[in-house]
């Protein structure tokens, strides 16, 4: 489908990759983009910069009531970008309780599912449209020191495949983006080279316009997939060493 003249909604659209999506969609000719965020005022700077084209919407993806309200308000949407994410730097065994893992699953999996369920009828009414789920290299390679985040992204990747099959008959494209190391607040703890959020957003637009089911957005993600293909057992061992490095750095 064409992004030009479309109407999109971006969850977590007030900063980082989400804000990059808002800007890139508008630059590509989208007629309007709804900027979803837990605090509606967080998207005010985009409303001011793009009057009438960027519209802030209060949207906590873990609230079924707010997701339903957004679908009732944004009835002209033809592109859904599920970008909102949560990351807690905890391991599965080392976390004090299950609250962090539950929160990551609520945002990264159930939030995506809730948005897909509520907006599927909206997309159908507007010709089918497209869904893009922003995932991570941690969705294709289990990362033990991302204890709750990696399993949640794995689940969201499987969700993408299932939703694609379920919505095929209504003409809805469903894609996911495998994102590597990106310069965002969520990735402040990550060392080394980081891509611009624009890189991810532009890849997402390409996935929409070319109907690409799964797309690696940057060099890091491409490298991870290649390494898994070459030697998955070695990659598993390499990821396990991250726990030892973390223990040395933290003294735990």
Mean pLDDT: 93
What about the largest sheet?
7 strands, parallel
- Oligomeric organization of the protein chains: single chain
Query: What's the gyration radius in Å?
Result: 18 Å
Beta strand %:
5-15%
Distance between the termini: 51 Å
Helical content, roughly?
A: 40-55%
Q: Give the full name of the CATH homologous superfamily.
A: NAD(P)-binding Rossmann-like Domain
> Which regions contain 5 or more consecutive residues with pLDDT less than 50?
none
CATH T-level topology: Rossmann fold
Number of helices: 8
Structural class: alpha/beta
Question: What is the CATH class?
Answer: Alpha Beta
Order of helices and strands: EHEHEHEHEHEHEHH
| Order of the strands making up the biggest sheet | 3-2-1-4-5-6-7
What features would you describe in this structure?
The protein is an alpha/beta fold and 252 residues long. It has a single domain, classed as Rossmann fold (3-Layer(aba) Sandwich). Helix content is 47%, strand content 13%. The chain has eight helices and seven strands; from the N terminus they run E-H-E-H-E-H-E-H-E-H-E-H-E-H-H. The chain has a seven-stranded parallel β-sheet, with helices on both faces. Strand 4, helix 4 and strand 5 form a beta-alpha-beta unit. Helix 4 packs parallel to helix 5. The radius of gyration is 18 Å and the shape is globular. 43% of the residues are buried. The model has no long low-confidence stretch (mean pLDDT 93).
